[in-house]
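Appendix B, example 12.
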Amino acid sequence: MGTSFGRGGATTFQQDLANADCILIEGSNMAECHPVGFQWVMEAKARGAKVIHVDPRFTRTSALADIHVPLRAGTDIAFLGGIVHYVLQEEKYFREYLLAYSNAATIIAEEFADTEDLDGVFSGLNREQRSYDTQTWQYAGSDMQAASGERDQEWDERTGEGSSVSEAGRGEAHGSGGAEVGAEPEVDVTLQHPRCVFQILKRHFARYTPEMVEQICGVPQATFRQVCELLAENSGRDRTSAFAYAVGWTQHTVGVQYIRTAAILQTLLGNIGRPGGGILALRGHASIQGSTDIPTLFNLLPGYIPMPHAHTNEDLDTFVEAEGTEKGYWGNMKSYLVSLLKAYWGPAARPDNDFCFDHLPRLTGSHSTYETVMEQLKGTCKGYFLLGENPAVGSANAKMQRLGMANLDWLVVRDFSLIESAMWWKDGPEIESGELRTEDIATEVFFLPAAAHTEKDGSFTNTQRMLQWHHQAVEPAGDARSDLWFTFHLGRKIREKLLAATMEASTSDEQRERDRPVLELTWDYPTKGETAEPEAEAVLAEINGWNSDAEPLESYEQLKDDGSTACGCWIYCGVYKDGVNQASRRKPTTQQNWVAPEWGWAWPANRRILYNRASADPDGKPWSDRKALVWWDAEEGKWTGHDVPDFKVTKAPDFEPDEGATGPDALTGTDAFIMQADGKAWLYAPAGLTDGPLPTHYEPQDSPFPNLLYPQQRNPVRQVIRHKHNRFQPSGTDPGSEVFPFVVTTYRLTEHHTAGGMSRWQPYLAELQPELFCEISPELARERGLEHLGWATIATARGVIEARVLVTERLTPLKIQGRTLHQVGLPYHWGQNGLTTGDTVNELISLSLDPNSHIQETKAAACDIRPGRRPRGPGRAELVRQYQHRAGITPETGTEV
């Protein structure tokens, strides 16, 4: 969504689902995984909205939907692409909206060649390097660059100096916006030019017919047409449809392109920025959104500012030149970055030292979690912190996670319980199988008990970009401490040791210079209580920022590039407006309008619906009274309405910028997508994605079927991590693929939480879901001799697990390419520890990643299933080897472009 619209967060908020006329839930079991938010879906249904649930399994969400559409896991691009084809062919798109707010009319360079021309790949593919050169994807007449955070690959051309980092962390930069456009692009408002985006889109999706959807996805044509008609009928000038998705879309080798297809569809239908419309990215738990805003991601700084790369001769201005844009709000990147540097280093950050820009770490490549595991196995990563993570259960190829940790010098685990990632050295699967011996493991493991959220102050930033403050209810028991306490006091002790070292005569000048970035950090937060817990509100105040008079800032519009403002995260600026914690507001909904702006605080600027300029027509009038959100008040000379306008409040609809204007001042009065350098929603992404400007259906890494749409079987630039414990399977019609004839998909349960660390130790939750199970259809049970409540062994080329059998009609056999496909559903919460134990489903999953986000493909794989329990001891690994031998698997299997 960052590449499509300019920001990576949900475009709308959960309560607004109640205003939708149709809701498509796909890649999510919202009723069970987001039950609080699902109440707004039910309110919409009570008002007459149609609810569509697309999912391999029939779930509680399906039971409450008007239509449940079972489909083959891993084929959502074909399904959504079929809807795009329908909308274009039947002319159901919102033409006036498209012309005003999208790049439909923009003309693409002559050099571009589509998948239709090149047998399923785009122009610019370098097969040896498994990457695309995006130069041929650009707008005609524009000198474009990659999206912010990805421009490393074009560094030399952009700055004229410096050395490229060949394996830099690239890809969809989690909300860093689209590409720099350069010159004003050529357009054809008639939408007839053969190289305009609209015509390219029509050609690209022409083969995504209902017949093709049926053959690829297993969705009957009549059902598919019903979905198309419901979405089209409930979108347009007077009606809007909303999409909701979760990790069922993201965890694929083409996961980013799943969401791109939804973005294209919602733009065509005119549903972005409008009440009851938009795309809601349902986050996995309370502050997943917050952990990307103020990031735990290796390639970002707070507020989606890209992390600098390890170039030579790089200074602050060079970085801003390479990463900023001329037009739109990323034109103010220097103000955002300088304010961040002032928050980090305070008085030490001055104009004469580039505001300590050199103190920032530099990327030398991709440092995602899975690359880190490979570095552990190589012996180059010596230490590892796990804070609220349990990779021995929750990460793909769990065996490699444990083997990586077994090769560390030290490991710090902070959690509520002795999770598997703290105990693998004693009772992990490799100890049982004899592949590891406790006495041979040199890793020193430190377990530190963590405080629960009820035992500390702090904020959650949830699904809808909303910060909500929670207050400490009780003191943490025993030695348990909050993450804030741990981070603050660890930093304090490190600084004390470094400071003492600077006083020693034996310390070299080089060492003192190396330690300066840590010693000069602003690290003076007030503490409270016997445990010296840092004041969380003081951290929030720093994130909000202040001016040179120490007065809290009200808006990121106030940020300066001269060092007079400090702000820890520019998109959060305003959360501590007037010195008041805006995130702690709890005004009842009966005392405010339906947007409820005084319940918590949403970034940016407390806007609840992003891109809401598009809720009005180019003249500033609502598309319809029924769907009014914000509108231009000519008498007052400003925008007004129910929500905070997502642009300058005084910018008139007919505003045209002066020649040479930059930043926000260069946006016209109809540029609704203010983070994009052309102000438009992108149906076509000329840069910013590593695997194509348009979504394309590719089969999952391991698939029992060939790609019917193109000769290209898989995403050609997917990440495949090669290792003897990460073997891939034959796919499609390749010999050996018949060894793994079924599709397995993973999911979560209401009663358990992610990797189980918070739930498997709770007696009531353990009683509600006491064992790992596999859901299978009655037909598959008969075919493989599986008994209800008996045992089954599920196998892939990476591992085998056992699970109780749940025979249920919730899983429907599908007719795919002339044969019956059975799917196996597995909840992924179990591990070896806790009150309820079981095998880890992630033993089955490979390290094959989306090339943009580096996320694993856990939602679609090929497997075998057989009756009975798996072998114990060395027999478990031997069974995996037997499967690999039967399928003819070699180190090269599945790694081809």
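The chain is about 25% helix and 15% strand. The mean pLDDT is 94.
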